[in-house]
Amino acid sequence: MRLWHNPASPFARKVRVVARELHLTQALEEISVLVSPVNPNQTLAKVNPLVKIPTLQTDDGVVLYDSSVICEYLEHTYGQHHLIPNGAQRWQTLRLQSLCDGVLDAAVLCRYELAVRPEAYRWDAWVEGQFFKINNGLTVLNQSVSDFGESFQLGHISVACVLGYLDFRFADHAWREKQPALAKWYETIKGRDSLTSTLPS
Ligand code: BEZ
Asked: Which positions ≥6 away from 137 have C-beta within 8 Å?
């Protein structure tokens, strides 16, 4: 399998963490590509019309996107329902992933607004609107920590990727001050091999 990714992308990191939790690193060729909203990567455009990472090509040649579909494929093909449980827990797991993906959408849009858009065109109210979503999401995650249990499944992987991305790109956001339960939980899991080996730097 081939995975197009970028080490800074939190969505690609989610897939890379899943691959490591499923012991798939030997089976997965990771291809790091540069992506930019204003300069589409022409190599990636040949396999994914949306020119987005992560993009996976399976051993059968099927191209899959986005991160949630790729994670589901990896778990379905190589996992044993540990990362996406069956029954009622499945929907909690997928909802947690969706919440995290939404927080990350807002965070990545802020990153592009603040780092890519020329300063003269920046719109403070728009950034504040994205941060409203980020902070609301973090509050719900903080309230959900008591339900996380001991396992480390796709929902928890998604939460770890959110917190890692905020620390990476928005280190002065100080989310820990308002979300102490989340901060405490993150301390217990952030040393996992799958997370340390994919930490953006
Ligand atoms: C970033 O540099 O923050 C980034 C890179 C790729 C995708 C998303 C975010």
From this structure: 99, 100, 102, 103, 106, 162
